[in-house]
Task: structure prediction
Amino acid sequence: MVFTEAKRYYVERRIAERMAATSIDSFPAYFAFLRSEIRDEVEHIINAFTVNETYFYREDHQLECLTKDLLRERIQEKRRGDAIRIWSAPCSTGEEPYSIAIWLLENWSEVDNFNIEIVGSDIDTRVLGAASAGIFGKRALMRLPPDLVARYFEQLDDERWLILDDLRQSVQFSRVNLVETRQTRPQGQFDVIFCRNVLIYFDDESRRVAAENLYDNLLPGAFICLGHTESMSRISPLFEVCRYSDAIVYRRPREMKP
Amino acid sequence: MPLVRRGSSETAAPRLDASTLTAALAGGSIDERWTAARAAAELPNGLALLSDALSREADPRVREAIFTSIARTRIPESAAALLPYLHSDDASLRAGALDALRAMPEATAPHLPGLLTDKDADVRVLACELVRNQPVGEANRLLRPILATESQANVCGAAVEVAAEVGGPDLLPLLAECAGRFPDDPFLGFAIQVASDRIGSQASNRG
Result:
């Protein structure tokens, strides 16, 4: 990884996040801690700096929120057998949409009462190919309890696991640039969108266009989850802030007051 | 398994022509105006249509789409169309115009010298915020006359906040000069001290 002077703020912010997470208040002390390679800190800081690298059950407090609050609200206006549509964009190599699928199967008591559609989209066709293939390494599975790994994956060798065919067949993948309305519109409208850690990489104009596209991709009253360092309020006034016990998310208002 | 996989539920929207968009912007429902405002940025005369629509539009969601579409046109004339709204009594219009200008820094740049010397101090405060998105060298150049001569403490405060983020060591004497003009304003003195310390420490870190 190479970070130029222009990325100084990016680097400083991630180091500051790790210093806060480890309760270390001086950089020399943090650097010594990092070099000592204890408590997986090297892994934590690498995770903080990589963009595409992700893993199953990442930010699982939002998955808690999904079943405990968001879907509970969404099904108030649905009948048994209706569709519930969830969009993971960007989905990278598939960890997020598959995590949503596993989480729902494991944790949502209403899961059999609705037709749940999960769509994963990304601008990068290589990661979409990997997502469809559904083969993951140890690092991607590190947060999953062993019994879930045993239940939803087939071990191919010491380093690779293949997600069950049923799951692979139930998540739909598509190539989408979030800034291109012609690409976002055909995805239809969703009950919940996970759009984590991507808007921060856009310039102001692209962020505004993406926010409006995402607004159009939400059903009235539906929710969007961003990464924990992101705030939709700083991007667009179109959404309502919803504070739940496990996460802060944003909602497309049911109707805008004139 | 309760998970199902279907094809796309919608097809791409057809391209809308200028007359359809004009009619929708002028007399459509909120949803129609929103859609037309979002599509109008791609028309050759989109800026004129959008500027006209903005002067009449009362719905905040449609206004937001108009602001975004104007920002997408990214030419100095688009920025010029938004400048009058920085003087608006309506806070949402002022904020909407400011955000849209912020989203097109290159188109806004030619207007900044005028905005920074506007006779309305509130506009000068907003203009300082727009300086933040300019390339660092240009931002420093724009901040110099404010720090050197601006008579309103609030405008200086806005400039100092931007200087703390993008300022180089060349601004340090001007920051001191600015503090000297407002000896009875403890907040400004404090802000200038913080900005000066930050600029000084960044300069020493870079060697």
Notes: The first helix of chain A runs from residue 8 to 21. Chain A has a mean pLDDT of 90. The first strand of chain A starts at residue 83 and ends at 88. Chain A has two domains: 5-49, 60-251.
